[in-house]
Design a protein that fits this description.
By secondary structure, the protein is an alpha+beta fold. 28% of the residues lie in helices and 24% in strands.
């Protein structure tokens, strides 16, 4: 696994060296404005007369399944320029010209490591070079909002972790459009913060207003949830009064100092972002008290509006505190101007020439069209990115610390899973692997659910910051989590409750965790084994000839997501299936094909020893009397090596449930991170026991089936290794008929039965070990209905008697419906691209400014906002829920009892059916027990989330995390004179003299 990560990092190092060499040799040339490059949006576009458009040209594209079957060019890269930038700007054209040298390295990297996917260079100037070349298409508004400098991989590689306080001026002069621009500026600043950063937002006029009052006096981690929480509060800001900047600056400096002393936060760079329309003073006494001479806190003022009366004061603040000043006049200016501060924070790292390797948290691949990516049955493509900064190495610019950009490559999380020997985890049956980041967030885990929605899937808003404690929630004291965050190596054990089958069932397990760090990354990795499995295993030995003979049977299949042979190492192997690769490997036709010798040998053994099943199943098909009514539809087998055999007793079109054993049924097949559910549940039973279940996704009229499976063990004891599991799919109607026939048979001595299921005074049920009804006289109950909801009085009694027990499960990735009073349409006003492409194209900007000055725009905007808020809408938001599951007590085989239903005594009896997980329940139906509340499995939001004080504590709570290993907050050679602003500013003589003295004293 470490080798895989190392190879990706080495590829990035080669790109960095090539980029820096190319820039070193490049000389800026104004004639380059005539230079044509392949623009990602314009390639293969023609004008009205059929000629290629400028920056377009013919660009050969061919579908490639390694790149999600997209049409790509494996020889060349393309260049994307954000919509709000001019694609022939001299700085961009010069950068595109020298970075063209990366094409050769892109191709070379791909040849060295064919498992690589997208490689790219994100320039500090804003353009994005991507390999392989692919055509980009605008959204429905004609916009490509992508800006590489806003991506986490870019920001993490370019800068060090930081603590940031954002001060927002909400004095009366900020009314109208200025406040709208200020909100968008703050939102854009939040976009540039990541999981290693900490922040808070303070609005000020004559008083201080923490945007989230609960977080007065502290900073919070800049994860997705916290940033979204603050964005919601930005809409509540309104302008009035006068601005007391001195009070706000004092609070910001005190906050940063006090928070740093707690030992929390980034413990690296510190910054104050000042969003205002002016400052009447330089406030040098405050800076002298809190920030000089070290100047550890950088100041980044953003002047809102066109006026520059107070611009010189704001620029002086930036220059005197190693910051940067910018002026933002329109919404379209926001994003580009906010980015400037990143160049300043990158200077120390550039001067140090530290090419830190960074890895991002998991995110969903954005290269596929949304519908195809999330709705094609394949699920989301989770990625992590490895990135490195690229610096200017020219001696004359060394103290300027010029960041050229960042190189990166995407690494599918599935690549990490391919390095795991799944058959060895399979010996432990319930075992799986997962990895977390330095912040304790999941990189990969079987229980990570990044999507929601029954129809078209959508991304959850906080899927990239799901903490380990939210999936391994029994780790109450975070012992496992903290050990992993601290990158330790060791073992940990605990009792766990795992929900399966769409959260309807529960397994109680004792898990052993073996954890260690992944060298060269911020990740820690775990292999999990369930106690009682995996302690013993076996190996078989057969000849290659007999193994291949049985492996080639048409009814044999291998786990699609397992790596028996590495088909990614060489391009000629990419199109091989695992079965094809094994055959080539065993026949010696591909000496460069690397396969897992042990796993392949075990597969051959399983193919040979299970081959007789095919003849047995075939004989059943030929013997019409055995299955004359076609009640049994499928027989199946799965082994611990991922081999499966499937035999159909009916033609495919006649299958009642056609999803079973297909990729559509994720829990029913061998996956990268788990064995089939029917396999795992059968293995938890006493050897020789069949487990029956009614699949929840198919229990509807004319599609209802029952699954029955049992595990195959070498010895008749629980510690014996599981060799395989076998089972059948049968029609529910067929299964019910067999039950009713058996239940009506009588074995009384006198030939007469005193009671039977035909008796109108009793109800007969067949339930499984989780309390779900498989057979009932009332067919409406056969939709996955739990017995608790039908016979609540009886099942409550069974809980008291210990025949069943209730287990509370938690879902910390849930979504709950809430009613929002504000309309999402208002947010369109804050999007710079919609503003840029609005009908008037900002032709009326001067008129708008005029209206703002007279507060007419404020009045108009407030009226629209009020109307939008009155509309309201329902939306889903992240929440925590709890829900019950039920499980039978193994040792109690039968029980009888009575329930007092308001004076009427209701009797019942329950008895386990031998060698199964089923129970027959007979209930006296003469009493009305409707006064007993039915017990449901519906999830309930954990009520503490509505308690404001507890909600506040949760916001403040910061779990243990590990800071990144490197930090570059400042450098003594840094040139702080470059402190921003295209506006020509003439500072006062006193301010200029004071600043010169500062530079002389403290540089």
């Amino acid at each position: 696994m470490e080798e895989m990560f190392h190879k990706k990092a080495q590829a990035m190092k080669r790109l960095v060296e090539a980029a820096e060499d190319a820039h070193q040799q490049h000389v800026e040339d104004p004639d380059l404005l005539k230079y044509e490059y392949f623009n990602a949006v314009l390639i293969n576009e023609v004008d009205e007369v059929g000629n290629s458009v400028e920056l377009g040209g013919e660009f050969i594209l061919q579908p490639n399944d390694h790149f999600n079957n997209l049409s790509v060019n494996l020889s060349l890269s393309v260049v994307q320029v954000p919509t709000n930038m001019y694609n022939k700007d001299s700085a961009i054209v010069n950068g595109v010209y020298w970075s063209e040298a990366l094409n050769k390295v892109f191709v070379d990297n791909f040849e060295r490591d064919p498992s690589l996917i997208w490689q790219y260079f994100g320039s500090a100037k804003g353009f994005f070079r991507q390999y392989p070349g692919i055509k980009w298409r605008p959204d429905e508004n004609g916009v490509i909002a992508f800006d590489c400098r806003n991506r986490k991989w870019y920001i993490q590689a370019a800068t060090s972790p930081k603590d940031v306080v954002i001060l927002v001026d909400v004095s009366g002069s900020m009314k109208g459009l200025r406040l709208t621009i200020a909100r968008q500026t703050v939102s854009s600043i939040l976009d540039t913060l990541g999981d290693d950063d900490f922040f808070n937002i303070i609005a000020y006029n004559e008083e201080l207003h923490y945007v989230e009052p609960c977080l007065n006096g502290t900073l919070v981690q800049a994860d997705v949830t916290n940033k979204d929480h603050f964005r919601e509060h930005l809409d509540k800001l309104f302008a009035q009064g006068i601005g007391m900047l001195d009070v706000a600056l004092t609070e910001a400096f005190s906050l940063l100092r006090d928070f740093n002393e707690t030992g929390r936060g980034s413990d690296c760079s510190q910054a104050i972002m000042l969003v205002t329309d002016g400052a009447v003073d330089t406030y040098d006494t405050i800076f002298a008290k809190y920030n000089w001479p070290e100047r550890k806190v950088r100041i980044f003022p953003y002047l809102i509006g066109r006026e520059s009366a107070f611009a010189e004061n704001l620029k002086w603040m930036a220059c005197a505190n190693k910051g940067y000043f910018t002026q933002i006049s329109t919404l379209a200016d926001v994003q580009e101007n906010v980015m400037e501060y990143l160049h300043v924070l990158s200077r120390p790292k550039v001067i140090d020439q530290e090419h830190d390797t960074v890895w991002t948290e998991a995110y969903i691949d954005s290269t596929l069209p949304q519908a195809q990516k999330l709705d094609d049955g394949q699920g989301p493509v989770l990625m992590t990115t490895v990135a490195m900064p690229v610096f200017s190495t020219k001696n004359e610019t060394r103290n300027h610390g010029i960041l050229l950009g960042v190189v990166g490559t995407d690494v599918p999380v599935s690549e990490l899973l391919k390095t795991i020997p799944k058959h060895k985890i399979g010996w432990a049956l319930h075992g799986y692997a997962f990895a977390i980041t330095n912040n304790g967030y999941i990189l990969t885990h079987p229980d990570l659910r990044p999507l929601y929605g029954d129809g078209k899937k959508r991304r959850k808003p906080n899927y990239s910051s799901v903490d380990l404690s939210e999936v391994e929630w029994e780790d109450k004291d975070d012992m496992l989590r903290n050990a992993m965050v601290n990158r330790k190596t060791g073992t940990f054990s605990m009792e766990v409750k795992k929900s399966v089958d769409k959260g309807k069932r529960v397994l109680e397990l004792h898990n052993d965790y073996y954890y260690t760090d992944i060298k060269g990354t911020p990740f820690s990795f775990v292999l999990l084994f369930s106690r009682g499995h995996g302690k013993f295993f076996f190996r078989g030995n057969v000849t290659v000839e007999e193994g291949l003979h049985d492996l080639e049977h048409p009814d044999v299949a291998l786990a699609d997501e397992w790596t028996y042979c590495n088909t990614d190492e060489h391009p000629e192997h990419r199109y091989l299936t695992q079965m094809e690769a094994i055959k080539l490997y065993l026949n010696g036709y591909e000496p460069h094909l690397h396969c897992d010798k042990v796993l392949v040998q075990e597969v051959l053994f399983d193919a040979v020893v299970t081959a007789p099943l095919e003849a047995y199943w075939t004989s059943l098909v030929l013997n019409k009397s055995e299955n004359s009514d076609k009640g049994v539809e499928i027989a199946y087998l799965g082994t611990r090596t991922g081999l499966s055999r499937i035999n159909l007793f009916v033609v495919p079109d006649e299958l009642t449930n056609q999803d079973f054993l297909t990729a559509e049924d994720k829990e029913g097949v061998f996956n990268a991170d788990h064995f089939p559910l029917w396999y795992k549940r059968a293995a938890e039973q006493v050897p020789g026991t069949f487990i029956y279940s009614l699949p929840f996704n198919t229990a509807s009229e004319n599609r209802s089936v029952v699954l029955a499976s049992t595990a195959i063990q070498l010895l008749d004891e629980r510690k014996s290794p599981i060799a395989a599991a076998v089972g059948i799919q049968m029609k529910l109607e067929f299964f019910q008929r067999k039950f009713w026939t058996a239940s009506k048979q009588c074995a009384a001595l006198d030939g007469k039965c005193s009671i039977s299921c035909d008796d109108e005074n009793i109800n007969c049920y067949l339930i499984d070990n989780n309390g779900f009804i498989l057979v009932a006289e009332d067919y409406t109950l056969l939709d996955g209905q739990i017995f608790w909801g039908t016979e609540g009085a009886v099942m409550s009694k069974l809980l008291q008697m210990g025949s069943f027990k209730r287990v509370t499960l938690y879902d910390y990735q849930a979504l709950c419906w809430v009613y929002s009073e504000s309309s999402g349409s208002g947010h369109a006003l804050l999007d710079p691209y919609f503003a840029l492409l609005s009908a008037v194209k900002w032709i009326l900007t001067e008129l708008v400014i005029f209206l703002v000055e007279f507060n007419l725009c404020s009045w108009w905007y407030s009226d629209l906002t009020a109307k939008a808020q009155r509309m309201g809408r329902s939306m889903q938001v992240p929440c925590d829920t709890e829900f019950p599951a039920f499980i039978s007590e193994r040792t109690i085989k039968e029980n009888t009892g009575h329930v007092d239903c308001d004076g009427c005594i209701k009797s019942f009896v329950i008895q386990q059916i031998p060698s199964s997980n089923l129970f027959m329940v007979v209930v006296d139906n003469k009493c009305d027990c409707s006064m007993f509340e039915p017990i449901t499995m519906n999830p309930v939001e954990i009520i503490t989330s509505h308690n404001e004080s507890l909600k506040c504590e949760r916001l403040k709570m910061q779990k243990h995390r590990r800071r990144p290993d490197t930090c570059h907050p400042f450098h003594p050679e840094e040139n702080a004179m470059e402190c921003g602003g295209a506006t020509h500013l003439v500072p006062s003589a006193m301010a200029t003299l004071f600043y010169v003295l500062l530079v002389l004293l403290y540089r």
